[in-house]
Amino acid sequence: MNRIISFPHVGDYSYFIKPFLEKVTLEKVKIAPPITKKTVEIGSKLSPDSVCMPFKYNIGCYVEALEEGANILFQFGGGCRYGNYAELQKTILSDLGYEFEFYEFIKKGKTSFNYIYKTFKSINSELTRMTLLKELILVFLKIMIFDKSEHYTRKKIEKDEGEFKKLKYKFINDLCNERNIFKIFKIKHHYKLKRKTIKVKKPKLKVGIIGELYTAMEPFSTFNLENELKKYDISVKRFTDVSYLLFYKKLFHPFFRFKIKDYLKYHIGADATCNVYRLLYLKKKGYDGVIHTKPFGCTPEVGVMPILSKISNEENIPIMFLSFDTQDSDTGMRTRIEAFNDMLLMRKEKKNGK
Amino acid sequence: MVIGVPRCLFYYRYQTLIRSFFNELDIEYVISDPSNKKILEDGKKIAPDEACFSLKMFLGHVKNLEGKCDYIFIPRIESVKLDEKVCTNFYLLYDLVNNLFDIKILDFNIDEQKRKTEKSAFIQLGLFLGFSYNRVITAYNHAKEKEKKVKNNNILKQTCILNNNCKKVLVAGHPYNIYDEFIGKPLIDTLKKNNIEIVYSDIYDTKNIEEESSIISEEVYWTFNKEILGAIGKYKDNVDGIILVSAFPCGPDSLINELVIRKIKDIPILNIILDEANSDTGLVTRLESFIDIINKESAYE
Question: What is this structure's pTM?
Answer without folding.
Answer: 0.90
